[in-house]
């Protein structure tokens, strides 16, 4: 495979990641609505810790576990931000 073919594959994966990130965000919004209705906090440190632990356990590499945690921290931060913004008026 040459560099152009590899870049095409990266572009394909980026599109898939974008779809998955948005699907995950939509689910987070649904959870945020339920949390708001039940008076639960948006931030759940125990849930986040379990996500990080699970993703590290599933990580086949080559990304290091610390990198996986950083990536998921960012995804979760954005989901939490979206929950706060979108559920304010609910």
From TrEMBL:
Q: What GO biological process terms are annotated to this protein in UniProt?
A: chorismate metabolic process; salicylic acid biosynthetic process
Alphabetical list of Pfam families matching this protein: CM_2
* Assigned keywords, A-Z: Isomerase
**Every Chorismate mutase domain range:** 1-87
Give the matching InterPro entries. Chorismate_II_sf (IPR036263), Chorismate_mutase-related (IPR051331), CM_dom_sf (IPR036979), CM_II_prokaryot (IPR002701)
What Enzyme Commission number(s) appear in the record?
5.4.99.5
SMART domains with a match to the protein in the record: CM_2
Query: What GO molecular function terms would the record report?
Result: chorismate mutase activity
In terms of PANTHER family, this protein maps to: CHORISMATE MUTASE (PTHR38041:SF1)
What is this protein's record name?
Answer: chorismate mutase
Q: Which organism is it from?
A: Desulfuromonas soudanensis
